[in-house]
Amino acid sequence: MKNVARQLSVVLFIVGFMGAASAQDSVKVLKKDVPESVLTAFRKAYPKAIVKTYSRETREGSICYELESKDGATKRDVIYAANGDVMEIEEAMKRSNLPAVVMATLTKNYPNAKITAAEKLIKGTMVQYESTIKVGSNTIDLLFSDVGELIKPALK
Q1: Are 143 and 130 in contact (CB under 8 A)?
Q2: pTM above the 0.90 mark?
Q3: Tens-level pLDDT at each residue, the chain (156 residues)
Q4: What are the start-end ranges of the E strands in 93-137?
Q5: Are 146 and 99 within 8 A, CB to CB?
Q6: In Å, how far are 3, 82, 83, 107, 145 from 100, measured between CA atoms?
């Protein structure tokens, strides 16, 4: 019995350590900690935007930087590789601006849903749309292709 308890303790310690390590994958940093290549690329692309927060994270084994910003009324998160190349853009959008093909799929699959948030995601040449909906007491994140195909529903 003591051996089982010891083994369980070791497993729980390892799982806890792994959870703590993955929680540290995204860490808020100061502007001075962000490579100049990233700052220059952002300023060039979004000269009027104001950066709210800077974060460093690891994606696919590489360090990258996320800049959460506001550009007029547009909230935008841009993820850069350390060399300043854009990896991903997440741009908040009005629910009414979701493409018709996305809305058609959404209303077909979730006819009683209330859309609470919408984003346009850009990764290279790939464009996707994310929508958060409320169905009863459930909150669900949905991911759609640019042609309206439902890629991922995920209960929150």
Answers
A1: yes
A2: no
A3: 544 444 434 333 333 444 434 434 889 999 999 999 999 999 999 999 999 999 999 988 999 999 999 999 999 999 999 999 999 999 999 999 999 999 999 999 999 999 999 999 999 999 999 999 999 999 999 999 999 999 988 665
A4: 114-123, 126-135
A5: yes
A6: 60, 36, 37, 10, 12
